[in-house]
## 1
Amino acid sequence: MEIELSNLLENSVVLDGLKYATSHEWVKHEGPVATIGITDHAQDHLGEVVFVDLPETGVSVSGGSSFGAVESVKASSDINSPISGEIVEVNSSLKGKPGLINTSPYEEGWMIKVKPSNPSELESLLGPKEYTKLCDEENAAH
C-alpha cells in the first residue's frame, strides 16, 4: 500500500477533496450543504477531546467567527466557521462521544452542517497541498 507523503504531516492526515482554513477547520461542500469539522492536525495538537460545545440548528454563522468550542485534556479552543451560512445540522453524537473528534475527525467527528450564504468564501480556503505546507511550517516553528 502506497501513501502519498504530501498528505502526511508527522502522522496527521490531510484529505483531498476538502477545503481548509488557516485556523485548522475543514469544509466538505456537497450540493447545498457544507460539512465542517476540525482537522486531524488540530485534534492531534489538542490531545484527548473531553467536551464539545456546539450551537443549535437554525443559528447563523459568519466566516471566520467562532461557533463553538472544544475542550481537551490540554486546553479549551474556540472553533471557527470557515464560511458563512445557516446551521442545518449539528453532530449530536459528539455530546456523548466527544472522542470521535480524535478517532475520526473527517468522518464521524464532523461538527456542523451549514447551508452556505456566500459560496464564494470557499474559494479563499486552502487546498490540501497549501494546508499541508501551512502545517509543515507550523510544525517547524515549534
## 2
Amino acid sequence: MSTPFETLTTLLAEVADLRHAAELLEWDERVYMPAGGAEVHGEMQATLRRLAHEKFTSDAVGQALDDLKRTQGSGNPDSRESRIVAVTARDYDKATKVPPRYVAEHALAVSAAQHAWGEARAASDFAAFLPHLQRVVELKREYVSFFPPAAHPYDTLLDDYEPGMTTADVQSIFGVLRKRQVALIGALAQRPQVDDSFLRVSYAERDLWDFAVEVITAFGFDWTHGRQDKSAHPFATSFGSEDVRITTRWVEDQPLGLLFGTMHEAGHALYEQGVDRIHHRTQLEGGASLGVHESQSRLWENLVGRSLPFWEHFYPMLQARCRSQLAGVTVEQFYKAINKVERSLIRVEADEATYNLHVMLRLELEIALIEGSLAVKDLPDAWNGRVEEYLGIRPPSDKLGVLQDIHWSAGLFGYFATYALGNLIAAQLWEKFEALEPSRDGQIGRGDFSRLRAWLKSELHQHGRMYQPKELVARITGGPIDPEPYLRYLEGKYTAVYA
C-alpha cells in the first residue's frame, strides 16, 4: 500500500505532465503554429489546463496533504519531503479557491488574446486588441475576488509571481530606484554622448545568430536538452530540466537585440537546466519566483554580457564575423556603445540605466487597471503619457507603445515588477560572487564561466522552489532584497562609461 507521500508525488507527477503538455502547445503556438490554428490550440490548452487544475485541486491531493500534516510531526522542515508538502499545501490552498470553470475560461481567453495581440501588434492597431484585453482584465479582477481581501487587490496577483511580496513593498523599492535612476540619467545627459553609429548599420542576421549561439554555449547552455527558435517576443519555457527551450527575435534596426535577447533567455534556461532532476514532476520544479528567475537572465545578459572583461574575450570573435561593420572599432568603443544611455521606447531594448523606468510605468498602469481607476480603452493614452513623463519621448504608434509586450495578452498581471526585482537580486548575487571569487573579472575575461555557473547551480539553481525568494536571497547573500548593490553597480559603471 502506498504511503501518503507516495500518493501525493504520483498525483503531482500527473499534474506536471498535463501542465507541461499545455505549455508545449503554447510554445508551438508562439513559434510554429499556422495562423489558422489559434482556435483549436486554444481549445486543447483549455482542456489540458482544466484537467491539470481539477487533478491538482482534487480531494485525493487534499487527503494526502492532510495525512502528511498529521504524520510529519516534528520532522526536519528543511527536508525535501517537508518542502514538497509545504509548497504543495500553499499552492493547493490558492488553487482550490479558483473554480475549474474559471481556469478553462482564462485559458481560452488568453489563447485568443495572444493571437489577437500578434495580429494587432503587426498592424499597430490597439482597437483590434481592445475587446480581448478587456476580457482578460475582467478575468483577472474575477481571480482577485476568489481570495480574501488583501491590503491592495494587486497583492493577490503579485503573490502568484513573487511570493511574500506586496504592492506596498514594490512601490517602496521603486520609489528609491526612481529617484536615483532619474538623477543618474539626468547627469549622464550632460556629458559628451557615446558614438554608437556602427551599431546602426546593416548586419547579417545569420552572423549574429551564430555568434549568439557561440556565446551561450560558452555560458554552459546544454543543447542536448535545449534549443533556440525565433518568435515575435523572446521567451524561455521548460518542460523539466531535460527539455528547456528559448527564443529570440531579429529586428533590422536593432541588430544587437538578437544577441542580448539570446543571452537573456539563456540565463533563464541555465536556471531551469540547473534544477536538480529529483524535483522533476513535483511542486519544487522550476524557479523560486519570477524575480529570482529574472535575476538569472539579467545577470547573464547585463552583468556578464555587457561587461568589459566579457568583450575583451569575445569581441575579436564578433569582429571576425562582422568585419565591414566593426572595422576600426576598438573593444573600448564597442563596450561604451552597447552601454549607451538613451531614452528608448522598447523595454526589451532599453539600457540598464533606463530599464526600470519601463517597468515602473507598466506596474503603475497594471495597478490602475486592476483597481478600476483606468479603463482599458484609455490605456494607449495613459501609456503614452507615462512614457513621455518618465523618458521624455512619446510613442509614435501602438506597436512601439502599448502593444510591444505580450504579457497582458497572456494574462500575466503581476509579472512586470519581477523584472526590476530581478535586477536587484542579480546585483546582490554579483557582489557576493566577487567577494568569494576576487578573480571573477579575470575568469570572465578568459571566457571561463565554469566557476560562476557552478556557484549559481549550487547556491540557487539546484533548489528549484525549495525556498521562497526572501529566504533564498538571505541564504545566499546574508541579507534581504536590497536596491543598494544595484544602484552602486549602475552608478559606478555609467560614471566610468561616460568619464
## 3
Amino acid sequence: MIMKLKSLRNLFAAVVALFAMMFALPTLAQQPEAYVVKSDAGKTLTFYYDTQRGKHTSTAVYGINDTKIDKDGYSYPTWAGSLDNTNAITTLVVFDSSFKDYRPTTTVNWFACCTTLKQIKGMEYLNTSGVTDMNCMFFSCFSLISLNVSGFDTKKVTNMSEMFAACSSLSMLDLSHFNTSEVTDMYSMFSNCSALRSLNILGFETRKVTNMGFMFLNCSSLPTLNISHFNTENVTDMSFMFSNCSTLTTLDVSNFNTEKVENMTFMFAECPALTTIYCNSTWKCMKSIDMFQGSTKLQGAVGYNPFQLDVSMANPEYGYFKKKTSTGIETIQQLPADTHQPIYNLQGVRMNQTWEALPKGVYIVGGKKVVKK
C-alpha cells in the first residue's frame, strides 16, 4: 500500500512537471526580438520588436544585429547600403509601434548609403536612450529631404562622427535638444550637407569633443552658423572644419580654445563669401597649411593675401581675425525699405514675417547683422 502511494505521488509529480514544461516552452519561444523586414519590391524597410518574425512572408527578414562586410572590411547592417554597394532601392523606412520597447545600444550605419531613402515614419518609436554610437547613422542618405529627430535621447552617445554626412538634400536640421555632453567625436558630422540652409545646434555641449575635423565641410548653402558657445578645450583636430562653406559671411569663434589643436589645415579655406571671423585671440598650431586658402574677401586687421595663408594670420592684430565687441556688431546697419532679401534670426532660422512685423532685435539680412529698434 505504501509503495502504491509513493508511485502515485511520483506519477503526480511527473505530470505536474510535464505541464510546467509545456507552459514554459511557449513562453521561452515567444521572447520578442528586433528585426527588419524588407518588402518584396525592396522599397520599404520596417523595423519590428515582437514574436512574429516567422510569420512574415517576405524573403528578406534580417535580425537587428545581422551584418555584412564590404570589400574594405567595413561592417554594415545587412539591410543598409555600403560604399561599394549602395542601397538604391529603398525609399521608405517605417518603425512599427512594437519597436518602442526595444533598446538598441548602437545605430551605426543603420541607414548608411540608402541613397534613394526619402522618408522615415514612426521615428517616435525609436528609443535611443541606450545608444552610445550613432556613427554614420544617416550617412549618404542623398534623397532624404526632411528628418525629425526631436525625440532622440542622446545622453549616452559618445560618437556622432559622419552622422548626417552627405545628406545632400536636407535643407533644415534642428538639433537644439541634443544632449552631447558625452560626445567625443564629431568628425565630419555635417560634411557635404550641401542643401542645408538652417542648422540649430545651440544646445551642443562640446567639452569632451576631441575631433571636429571636416565637421561643416561643404555646407555650401548655409548662410549663418552659430558656434559661438562651443567649448573646444579638448579638440585636437579642426582641419577642413569650415572649408567650402561658400555662403557664410561671418563666423564667431571668439570662444574657441585652441591650445590642444594640432591640425588646422584648410580650416577656413574656400569660403569665398566670408568677410569676418570674430576672435580676440592669437592662435598657434603645428599644421595649418592653406588655412585661409581661397577666402579672398576676408578683412580683419588686414585684407586677404594669397601668400599668407597659415596660422600666422590667425590673430586680430595683424591677421584676418576681427576683434569682437560686446555685441558682436560694430556699426548699426539700417535695412533698405525695399528689400526682399530673406531674414534669419541669430540661430539661422528663416523668419516668415515681414521686417515690419518682426519684434525688436538682431537679425541676419544679406549675411549681415541688422538691428531693428
## 4
Amino acid sequence: MFLAEPQTTKFDLHFSVGKIPVRVHPMFWLISIIFGAVAVRGASINIFVGMALWTAAVFVSILTHELGHAVTAKAYGWPPRIVLHSMGGLAIFSPGSQSRKQRILIDFMGPGAGFIFGGLIFAGVLLSGHSANLLPGIGVPVGSGPPLSGGGRLELFVLFLLYVNIFWGLINLVPVQPLDGGHIAKAIIEKFRPRDAWPIALKLGIGTAGVLAVTALLVSGDFFIAIMFGLLGYNNYQMLQQVQAHR
C-alpha cells in the first residue's frame, strides 16, 4: 500500500481479476512511461518499444503485488479492491477486528506475491538453458548457460520483470513508512511498545531512509534510489512532527 487513493477520472481503466475490481488511474501509465525512458537508456532496442516493455512489466508486477495483498484480505473475509496510480498501487479493504498477525501477513503478501512470480520467471530462465541475475545489475548471475543480455525484446521484458518483482519487492520491505516494511515494523513494535509504537516506527523510518539514501548516492551512485529514500525520510520526519504535536 502506498499513499492515498487518487480521485476517479473519466480516463480510468476498469476491470476485474476474479471478483476483485481493479481501477487504473491514467497517471499510472504516464509515470511508468517516463520511468521506462530512463530504464531503456543505453539499451540496444528502439526506445518506444523499450518503454512499452517496461510499462507492461510494471503493470503486471504491481498488479501481482496488490493481488497479494487483496487475495490475503479476501481470504480473511474482507472484500478488497485495487487501485493502480502514479506512485504504485493500493489494495483497499475494510477489515473488522484485525489481529497483528493478520496485518503483518497481508502487508507481507504484496512483496511475497512478487517474489513468487519473480521466482517462477527465474526458474523458467534457468530451464531455458540461460543464466540470469535475480537482482539485475546488482547481484551475481546464477546458472551455467549464457546470461540474459536484454538485447532482444523477450530478454529485456524478462529482465524488467525480475528487477521489478525482486528488487522493488525488497525495497518495499524496508522499514520506512508508508512502505509495506514500514507497516510490518510498526505492527511488530506495537507488541512491545503499544503506547509509543508510532513515533518509534517513524524514527526508525527516518534513520533507515537516511542511511539508504546516503549509501545509494555514495556507494552505488543510484540517484533515483537516493532521492526516493530522501523524500521518504523527509515524509517520515513530517509525520513524526505531527504525531509529537498531538501527544
